[in-house]
Design goal:
It comes from Bradyrhizobium septentrionale. Residues 138-162 are annotated as: Disordered. This is Phage tail protein. With 162 residues, this protein is an alpha+beta fold. It has a single domain (6-147), classed as Elongation Factor Tu (Ef-tu), domain 3 (Beta Barrel), CATH 2.40.30.200. It is built from 2 helices and 9 strands; from the N terminus they run βββββαββββα. The strands form 2 sheets. Strands 1, 2, 5, 6, 7, 8 and 9 form a 7-stranded antiparallel β-sheet that branches. Strands 3-4 form a two-stranded antiparallel ribbon. The longest helix has 17 residues, at 131-147. The chain is elongated, with a radius of gyration of 27 Å. The N and C termini lie far apart (75 Å).
Length: 162
């Protein structure tokens, strides 16, 4: 992967700092309802990308400063672009740890990023409707049904109650 471009936020991994491998993929979020008799109903909820976690080492005169710059991005907790393998994802650095092997030239690192948005899947943090609006809508429907159980229909005189 030494010739690939890997950019996290404004930090470009170059030369020896590029990790040997990069993960991809994830899960399908779902709820499985197990019914009597062994049958199942499966509700799929959409993609659930696995964290993008990678390990590497930096050999440079400023390797320690580079590690501190990456740690500052973790501390900021902002959504930043992760560019590699011809794709771009918006991520938040979940974890960044480093070890100084030989100050200041040799530093090993571990990074884990949570995917906030994958352009191929849309915004993974957005919710189409809130629980409050759904509950309000349901209560409104229930209220109108309770005050007008026949939906505006007239009941002929002498009809026995239900």
């Amino acid at each position: 992967m030494a010739t690939d471009v890997l950019i996290l936020g404004g930090f470009a991994f170059e030369d020896f700092s590029v990790p040997n491998e990069m993960p991809g993929g994830g899960n399908q979020a779902m709820v499985v309802h197990k019914l009597p008799g062994g049958s199942r109903v499966i509700d799929t909820l959409g993609p659930d990308d696995a964290p993008v976690a990678f390990t590497g080492q930096m050999f440079a005169d400023n390797a320690f400063d580079q590690a501190l710059a990456l740690d500052a991005m973790r501390v900021a907790g902002e959504v930043i672009p992760l560019i590699w393998g011809g794709q771009t994802k918006q991520v938040v650095i979940e974890k960044f740890t480093f070890k100084v092997k030989r100050f200041p030239n040799w530093v090993t690192y571990d990074i884990s990023c949570v995917v906030a948005q994958d352009p191929t899947q849309g915004d993974l943090t957005a919710v189409d409707s809130s629980v409050d609006s759904n509950v309000s809508s349901d209560l409104s429907s229930a209220s109108s049904a309770a005050t007008d159980p026949f939906g505006g229909a007239t009941v002929p005189a002498g009809t026995p109650p239900i």
